[in-house]
């Protein structure tokens, strides 16, 4: 591949790659090992005349982490010397669902945080031992986004992302 001609420095296309990488470096405040890309929060990344425009969708309206995430994206993109500006928007749609979480994100959530996602059929599988004997313990989780379940096989508490 030939590099795009750079008559006036970096093209928007090159900057776009840098902005994408910067956005992918931002982790979720509640799960520091999981990037917001892996969580499926990043809907669009654009560069127009040197300015970055990032469209995010919230995992759950009202999560207190949203302001932190937007600020972290502005900080990460703002650190790029070639980006003249960074606008971060929370988009009204599409609605976030657990299907947006990447396989990598699911693995990290399960292995590092014992967080699992409810399958479409409503079933749950324990991320620690693989048992399907996970029962809901209480409606009240650490945040409104999550609930606590209990694995009857390995007796570990499991967080379930709604
Ligand atoms: Zn288990």
Question: How would you describe this structure in keywords?
Answer:
about 160 residues; alpha/beta; four-stranded mixed sheet; three-stranded mixed sheet; binds zinc ion
Structure commentary:
With 162 residues, this protein is an alpha/beta fold. Helix content is 23%, strand content 23%. The protein contains three helices and seven strands; from the N terminus they run αββαβαββββ. It has helices at 12-24, 65-78, 103-113, and strands at 42-48, 51-56, 85-90, 115-117, 134-138, 146-151, 157-161. It has a four-stranded mixed β-sheet. A three-stranded mixed β-sheet has the order 1-2-3, with helices on one face. The protein binds zinc ion. Residues 126, 128-129, 131, 151, 153-154, 156 line the site of zinc ion (ZN).
What percent strand? 15-25%
Radius of gyration, taken over Cα atoms and rounded to an integer in Å? 19 Å
Mean pLDDT: 85
Q: What is the number of strand segments? A: 7
Distance between the first and last residues' Cα: 43 Å
Sequence stretches where pLDDT stays below 50 over 5 or more residues = 1-9
**Main sheet: strand order:** 4-7-6-5
Into which percent range does the helicity of residues fall?
10-25%
Overall 3D form: elongated
SSE topology sketch:
Layout (H helix, E strand, L loop, with lengths): L11 H13 L17 E7 L2 E6 L8 H14 L6 E6 L12 H11 L1 E3 L16 E5 L7 E6 L5 E5 L1
Parallel strand pairs: 2-3, 4-7
Antiparallel strand pairs: 1-2, 5-6, 6-7
Bound molecules: zinc ion (ZN).
The site of zinc ion has 8 residues, from loops.
């Amino acid at each position: 591949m030939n590099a795009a001609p750079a008559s006036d420095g970096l093209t928007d296309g090159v900057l776009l790659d840098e902005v994408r990488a910067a956005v992918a470096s931002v982790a979720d405040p509640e799960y520091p090992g999981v990037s917001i890309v892996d969580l499926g929060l990043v809907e669009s990344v654009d560069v127009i005349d040197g300015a970055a425009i990032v469209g995010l969708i919230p995992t759950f309206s009202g999560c207190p982490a949203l302001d932190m995430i937007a600020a972290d994206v502005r900080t990460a993109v703002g650190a790029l010397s070639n980006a003249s500006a960074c606008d971060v928007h929370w988009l009204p749609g599409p609605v976030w669902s657990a299907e947006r979480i990447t396989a990598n994100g699911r693995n990290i959530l399960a292995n590092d945080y014992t967080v699992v996602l409810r399958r479409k059929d409503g079933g749950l599988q324990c991320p620690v031992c693989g048992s399907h004997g996970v029962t809901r313990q209480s409606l009240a989780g650490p945040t409104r986004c999550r609930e606590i379940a209990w694995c009857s096989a390995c007796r570990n508490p499991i967080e379930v992302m709604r």
